[in-house]
């Protein structure tokens, strides 16, 4: 972090360069050790994903050696009813939780940006709790609470628990978007005779849509990924995809899980790009 | 578990004068109720109240599902501080500290290069590319490390070619540290990047002009400027890895029992003990709160240096 700590040289005049940073006369700035290190770290980040992909086509079940190309694991996966029922449960949970959270989280973000009231800092603190408290503690608290009330565990108890963190994440994303908005727009609508509800739906909401959508995508991915909270709040038969994956991999390496990983990685890569696209579009649109 | 590419949570800016403040009291009250009521009730009912319930339950010794709750003291907390469990708490903290330091050492040069040295038009794409793995299943990323680190895995096959005897990393602490550092590195890079991007480069040049060596400039100009980012990234990684269950469970084996795994076992294990589990859970929340309080206390002060 040292030789090139003097910033990119394109901003200096040649004389300045000579004074400021002798080392850069020897090496090009984009061949600094940081750049080589970054390449290595990129490899580190993608190595596990590449390894999973590679072995999902390997004939050998147990060995790390390459023993020939096969699509057997993918075929097995497509005929695996348990995986599909787990996927269905996960999608049910994620879609329902995100749909409810989109409404609750957006309302909360708008309310927090609009009003001052006694106890607001407490309310704000509460809205950050799901982002701060470890998942395991949320999972434990929810399970104990449901048991204390005698509420039977089903797939809907997972949904209720997921709404807690989904709405918090959506509210954070919508809040950052709200902070960039022009407050006069809604006021103008009101001055021109719109009712508060009309102003909200016709003026504010369209401006917030990119933020709401990218918040929803984030919440969707987190809900699909959650293992701990779901396994604490799931009723019998409500096994989600992470729970199914966990019960398979804790006993060792499974080639059909490798195949599943590859498919899920493509799905999440697609969602990531969609989210980024929405975010950039949101930033570019004129306010 | 933030995966967002937005900066860490910031309270939304208050608009000083909004239409709401001009309207009669009744409608303002109704607006607040509609906007803040539903989410508030949900969080209160499913997060705040349950957390208070486990606080009560943590005072019940030897409770099993179905027992009557009857608080009778601090037996569960005393048990949590028995030597064996104290080792577990200590191990969790050292894993979290190790992961934080690992992420800082590996993440800083990456964030530095992307924020200050990479071609400008590539920066967003490079950052996005680096954090992309966060969008994939955390279970599967950790599972991938089993494939790499196990005795007959990728790493040992590769070092076997050069004649190095196989390493026994799986089911040992090093595997947990590798898995956790891998899992949380993108968060660190994301936060450090946000901080480094705002770095005032004129100060770096001034420092060099005044005769500082590059290491001096780095330590005395760069680091103080990005300290809030280092503190925020460190805190996020620390609290996330403190509560991590998946990496120690899948990669750590019996030798890497952590608080999160111990809690899990009190509820979904062979011999449940909800009271003890609740006490551990309360302690975990307490540890996280202490970490946040330390950041608020020291993070801010040093940031102004």
Number of domains of chain A: 3
| Span between termini of chain A | 39 Å
| Overall geometry of chain B | globular
Supply the CATH architecture of chain B.
Orthogonal Bundle
Instruction: Please identify which CATH superfamily of chain B we are dealing with.
Output: MetI-like
How many independent structural domains of chain B? 1
Q: What's the total count of β strands of chain B?
A: 0
Oligomer: heterodimer
Shape assignment of chain A: globular
Q: Which two chains touch over the largest interface?
A: A-B, 125 and 112 residues
Number of continuous helical runs of chain A: 13
CATH C-level class of the largest domain in chain A is Mainly Alpha
Q: Which architecture of the largest domain in chain A per CATH?
A: Orthogonal Bundle
CATH homologous superfamily grouping of the largest domain in chain A: MetI-like
Protein model, in words:
The complex is a heterodimer of chains A (about 290) and B (about 300). Chain A has 13 helices and no strands. Chain A has about 290 residues and is an all-alpha fold. In chain A, helix 6 packs across helix 8. Chain B is mainly α and about 300 residues long. Chain B has one domain: MetI-like fold, CATH 1.10.3720. Chain B has 13 helices and no strands. In chain B, helix 4 (about 85-115) packs across helix 10 and helix 6 (about 140-150) packs across helix 8 (about 175-195). The longest helix of chain B is centred in the first third of the chain and has 35 residues, at about 85-115. At the A-B interface, helix 1, helix 3, helix 5, helix 6 and helix 7 of A face helix 2, helix 4, helix 5, helix 6 and helix 7 of B.
